[in-house]
Design goal:
single chain, 328 residues, alpha/beta, Rossmann fold, 10 helices, 35% helix, binds phosphoric acid mono(formamide)ester
Length: 328
């Protein structure tokens, strides 16, 4: 484990709430810590575990549905040899009116070390981090941030282009990333914008103007409602899920209209450079924001994102609890 060399930078944060707060160096520390854990997960012989969180308790506390993030955190904790506890919110005392703080005080009375929380309200992870001693990891708070998703996305881009360009040292400087679709409701988009711009990539946002609030243009990104313009020079075409559950009212005229103008499919992808890869955070609305052919096609790295997610989350939990020094 490459964590004790000097000179180095010590990890000092207790929590991971969002990428708006993190420096480029902190983001790179996470990305640089992940490969050793990817190697653990890929072991063909021997145990896919390391003892870095042995005896620690990781609590998964998801107030919204999740497949990837919840299972990825649970697996990451197990591969670090931690004990894991999954809170079932639908049968917990939250249904009787217990507050988030009171619930967490009770969990902490049982000596939790890390609490991974997904919640529909922006800021839920932040208010817990301010008052509680456990390391709090934001697994998605409303439409605000989804930091671990953006970190696994950045790691996936970096790994892909390091391999494709046969240069194990390159970062994301100069990369062009097109984020397509429901920007307005997307915590994935917000966290990706913070991560990618801090790492030196340029970002273009594309979607119907009703799903593309003007405030985003102040985040140092380009904005367009023309899909072909957005992807013509993109190294990464990143389709976002249309979040039908977060829309208060219909924000585009019809599904058919959205598909015609914004779907990433075999036809629209002809506008992208041949080397461009396709990403999606999941879950996919097949044939809505992404055609099934592209979702399963040769340019997609969607399941690499999932594989890398475990390694990146192992890296984050190791950094938060063990606060190692990482070589510069
Ligand atoms: N990408 C993502 O957050 O997926 P889940 O909602 O399944 O966790």
């Amino acid at each position: 484990m490459a964590e004790t060399g000097a000179p180095g930078t010590a990890w000092v944060r207790k929590d991971l709430i969002g990428l708006e707060d993190l420096s480029r160096r902190e983001i790179e520390m996470i990305l640089d810590t992940a490969p050793q854990f990817l190697a653990v997960s890929k072991r063909e012989s021997g145990i896919k575990k390391v003892p870095l969180l042995q005896g620690r308790l990781v609590v998964n506390w998801f107030h919204e549905p999740s497949t990837r993030t919840r299972t990825s955190f649970e697996l990451a904790a197990k591969r670090l040899s931690a004990d894991t506890l999954t809170m079932n919110v639908s049968v917990s005392s939250a249904t009787k009116g217990e507050t988030l703080h009171d619930t967490l005080y009770n969990i902490e009375a049982m000596h939790s070390d890390i609490v991974v929380i997904r919640h529909g309200c922006a800021g839920a992870a932040q208010i817990l981090a301010e008052r509680h001693s456990s390391c709090i990891i934001n697994a998605g708070d409303g439409a605000h941030e989804h930091p671990t998703q953006a970190l696994l996305d950045a790691f996936t881009m970096r790994e892909h282009f390091r391999a494709a360009r046969q240069d194990p040292a390159i970062g994301l400087d100069g990369l062009r990333v097109a984020l397509i679709g429901d920007i307005a409701h997307s915590r994935v988009a917000r966290s990706n914008i913070w991560a990618l711009t801090k790492l030196g990539a340029s970002v273009v946002l594309c979607g119907p103007s009703t799903l593309l609030p003007a405030a985003f243009s102040q985040m140092g990104v380009d904005v367009t409602s023309n899909l072909r313009e957005a992807i013509c020079d993109a190294d990464v075409v990143y389709a976002l899920r249309i979040q039908l559950e977060r829309q208060q009212k219909c924000l585009f005229p019809s599904i058919r209209e959205y598909i015609r103008l914004f779907r990433v499919d075999e036809d629209s992808l002809k506008a992208a450079p041949p080397h461009a890869i396709v990403m999606h955070p999941g879950p996919i609305n097949r044939d809505l924001e992404l055609s099934a052919g592209v979702a399963d096609g040769p340019r997609n790295v969607i399941l690499d994102q999932v594989t890398n997610g475990v390694a990146v989350r192992m890296a984050i939990m190791h950094l938060l609890v063990n606060q190692p020094t990482i070589e510069n």
